[in-house]
Amino acid sequence: MRPVWSIIILTIFASIAEGVVIFLTTAEITATLGFASPLPADSRLITAIVALSFLLAALLASFFNLANKSRGIKAIMRWKTSWISRKVILFPIFSAMIFFYTVMLYFEIGSTLRGAIIFAASLTGLMLVISSAMIYYSIKFVKEWATLYTILNFIAVGLAIGSFTFIAILEFTNLSLIEHMAIIDFGLALIFIALLIKTGSLIRNDSIYSSITSKSALQFESDKIELIDNGAAYPHYNTVEYFHISGKRKIPIGRIAMIVLTFLLPIIGLLIKYYFKAQFAIEPSLIFSILLLMIIGGLIERWLFFVDSNHVQNIFYGNYQVKNKINPILTAGRDYRKMVINSK
Amino acid sequence: MKQLALAIDLNKCVGCHACAVNCKSWNNSGEFGPLHDEAPYGKEPHGIWLNRVQTYEVGIYPDVDVIHMPKSCMHCIDAPCVSVCPTGASHKRLEDGIVLVEYDDCIGCKYCSWACPYGCRELDFHDGVMKKCSLCVDRIYNEELQLEERKPACVITCPSNARIFGDINDPKSAISTKIRSQSGYQLMPESTAKPANHYLPKKKVSIDLTNFILTIDNKDLELAK
Q1: pLDDT per residue over A31-72, tens digit each?
Q2: Residue A195 half-sphere exposure toward CB, CA atoms < 13 A
Q3: Contact B119 A314 (CB under 8 A)
Q4: Nearest CB neighbour to B119, from listed A1, A81, A316
Q5: Which residue, A248, A297, A239, is CA-closest to A269?
Q6: Is the ipTM of this complex over 0.90?
């Protein structure tokens, strides 16, 4: 599938905002219950503002996805059947809750109500991330997407980057994190779990078995089916939208960059700063640099999510990739790709 | 329930693209507005075509066949594009089973095209809406046209009469009879979308060429000398 930058930014930023809010909620609840010392008000305020900023950027990006932006509000009409509708409804509710929490925190009013709002916001945010993932999960014609890994991955990557963002904000507000090591432990565990889920997803997608072949789809009586003419005005929407040749070539390097930037670098950074207490890692700039690289890694992760997927409609246009050797040979896909690559 | 659809006879289709061209022609000037093109006379023309004819080479030499396969919206009975639409712009008509897009409600999010397993929807970037075959709904019910002309533009124009239009749920209709008698099939039945359009399978035709090979006898050779 062709990666859409507006959707990449929308999904990853909304997930990060949710991750940050989950951490903020956990800090609020543990402080209220007396399990941990409360965080300073300015740390919480900046965290809420950062979450709002991510949501605002995601909202702006979402408009670029629509070919008809002025009618965007109509997207809430089919909430009973469409996951996009549900996402469009949940997004402003989540944003409004964070906004009210920020205002109440700023004016220091209604601590109980404030706690209730941020708790409800974290649940709404979780539903928003799940709705985002369900948009892709429910497309059963893209086998790489129609898996539980899609939902787990959306939640886990958001939590992983969100946790690191939270730690970076606490660093920014000069909070001594040595007294709050539970946050570091929790963050490390989440990044590690996200890495495991991502690895599982990559292994699963590389060994995927597609029962649909050109022979079964077109029902011609031969294993060798070759597309020799693609019809009028080629390339067109369906060949461009569902097949991204230049992106497919960058998958191996993209995967390495994604694993290193999104998962390994933050894990190593947290270990050397807070566990091994290396001298060169004292400066907060290290954490900010890693956070920036981690967000770039998150964007690469979502880019790969699109590029690595393979829609079955590509069978008709000679672009379907057969990943499993058990399948009959699909010469159409191979030969046609060669032809297109050569012509470039 | 009535379900209008097309059946395409792959034995008769000669790949002339007349159906695609007439579809483009009618829908450019019909009630659904223009199908926009980019550089239509340029080196790399791009444009919206609601019906595309693809040609496949099937088999290994010498047992090889060339099959022309026109493909447009299948008007699926369980259309996956309808349920995912966030605005309700994509809808399936109860009265005749045609799947249509209400352009005034479409926001151009492309989600319906992702849900379509056949790749039969195209986004018009100029209008910002998704476009697809409407089975010429503005023709087939048009009382200003003669009765025999109330058919989709592609059916009217097909020179080899390869396209049959009608109600597949009416067992006495011409399309149902053809589908039954010629083992009509649906594309990608695994999709579970139950496409309404059918294809009549190409039959194997073998011609004994030995009767057509020219032989040269000795007399002709002597004359040639």
Answers
A1: 888 887 888 888 899 999 999 999 999 999 988 888 888 888
A2: 17
A3: yes
A4: A316
A5: A297
A6: no
